[in-house]
Amino acid sequence: MKNAMIAILLLTIATGVTHAQERAGGETKVVIQQEQIKKQDYYTVRVGAWFPKDKEQGVKFDNIAFNEADGAIDEAQALGLDFHFRKNMGRPFFTDFSVGGWYTTYSFDPAAGFEKFQQQYDAWTVIVPVTIGLSVAPLPDNPIQPYAGVGLGLYVAFTGHDVLQISEQNEIADDTESYIRFGYYAGAGLDFLLSEGFGLSAGVKYQFVEFDEDKPLFTGHNNYTGLQAMLGVVLAM
Q1: Which of 83, 165, 206, 212 is least enclosed, having the fewest CB within 10 Å?
Q2: In angstroms, rounded to a whole number, what is the distance separating the alpha carbons of residues 117 and 14?
């Protein structure tokens, strides 16, 4: 009888341990699943407009400024595309990486009161910000996810102009230049998930970047400090 009771006791203990392990295993699965949700990353593609402080400056030739410029982009000084990646470091913090391309242009028409210009002057600039930052999302598991962050990086500018002919003897040939500046930003965004992995995204950034005044971009912009506003889609993985 004693041996039978010991055997039953051992069997009961073994059964309890097995059941506890099964429950612990289930809890572990839940924790792992929660950890996967916590570590979810977000890939965003957005289009938008950039409103820098500097406006169109017109054409400079022989240190003479001709301010009659016809902006191809009137209000938004640059239009562009932004790719934004938010990697979850553990709620509610994310590391941010973004790269984009922002384009602006204007034309100077010799018919605008300057008859000595025999050809139209076209200038363009493309700004490519490459930045890394940190953001905070207070509602990481909510389908509506607001966040705010700051970052810094390099801002590469490519700028060029087409031929400007003053007379048969005086002509400015086509030319392109490139510049690199350090800058930083502060911003905020809102991702609205329509399903588990797809949604809409809106964001704003205030960029702080200024190029050299002694070597202005061909479009006349030097101070690109200003607001960006963007709309697009987000993928959650």
Answers
A1: 212
A2: 97
Residue 117 CB contacts under 8 Å (≥ 6 apart), including other chains: 108, 110, 164, 165, 166
Tens of each residue's pLDDT in the chain, 237 residues? 444 444 543 444 344 435 444 544 544 444 444 444 445 899 999 999 999 887 655 555 555 555 555 444 444 578 999 999 999 998 899 999 999 999 988 776 655 555 555 566 678 899 999 999 999 999 877 889 899 999 999 999 998 887 666 555 555 567 788 899 999 999 999 999 999 899 999 999 999 999 887 777 877 778 899 999 999 999 998
Tokens of 13: 């203990």
Instruction: Tell how many helices (H) and how many strands (E) occur in the chain.
Output: 1, 13
The reported pTM is 0.72
6 three-class SS = helix
How far is 152 from 18, CA to CA, in rounded Å? 53
Listed in order, strand segments (DSSP E) in 62-174 are: 64-66, 70-71, 78-90, 93-108, 121-136, 144-161, 164-165, 171-172
Distance, C-alpha 211 to centroid of its chain:
19
- Dihedral (CA of 179, 185, 191, 196) sign: positive
Written as six digits, the tokens of 99 are 């790269």
